[in-house]
Design goal:
The protein is mostly beta strands. The protein has a single domain, classed as Immunoglobulin-like, CATH 2.60.40.1730. Helices cover about 0% and strands about 50% of the residues. The protein has no helices and twelve strands. Strand 8 (about 90) and strand 9 (about 100) form a beta hairpin. The model has no long low-confidence stretch (mean pLDDT about 85).
Length: about 170
């Protein structure tokens, strides 16, 4: 399994957008499963190019039906910023009035940041990209792969970080 996630930080104080594309196998085609996706609402979801029915989304789980041997799932979710440090935390510094975001990437709470299979027996390498205002600094305990401007008129940049370790 390989998982690629994009975070899109909005100007809102309560929510952000996260998109995950997950490539995974199923050893019993036709089976059903689920992916953890904690948030306010599902914006879109496709499995192998077909729409996923998310009408039963309960704020935590997206159910996936009729898996193939090899699968590609893409989910875009409107997620909630954390107020407890579990997920993506948003804070405004009272001194400089700047917004600061952070996450410890804790395994038990990563599903609050982007849709993922939260199962210890499933491992994946990650490609992580953050779209942030150009004056922000995106840092990680892994090396930055690239930083790209999103155009002359938009004050946004995309920073990509490659996590080469297999993580659950």
């Amino acid at each position: 399994m390989r998982e690629r996630s994009f975070y899109i930080v909005t100007t809102g104080e309560e929510t952000f957008l996260a998109t995950s594309t997950v490539h995974f196998s199923c050893n019993k085609p036709g089976y059903d499963t689920f992916i953890d996706a904690v948030g306010k609402r599902i914006i879109s979801a496709t499995l192998n190019g077909s729409p996923v029915d998310t009408s039963d989304f309960d704020g935590e789980t997206v159910y996936l039906k009729n898996l193939q041997g090899e699968n590609v799932l893409t989910i875009e979710i409107e997620a909630l910023y954390s107020k407890s440090g579990e997920g993506l935390q948003r804070s405004v510094d009272p001194v400089d009035n700047e917004v600061y975001l952070y996450s410890q990437g804790e395994t038990a709470f990563i599903r609050n940041m982007y849709p993922c299979f939260d199962q210890p027996d499933l491992k994946a390498t990650f490609n992580f990209s953050a779209i942030a205002p150009a004056h922000w600094q995106v840092i990680s305990n892994n090396p930055v792969k690239s930083t790209t401007s999103m155009g002359d008129t938009a004050p946004w940049v995309t920073t990509s970080i490659c996590l080469k370790l297999a993580l659950s």
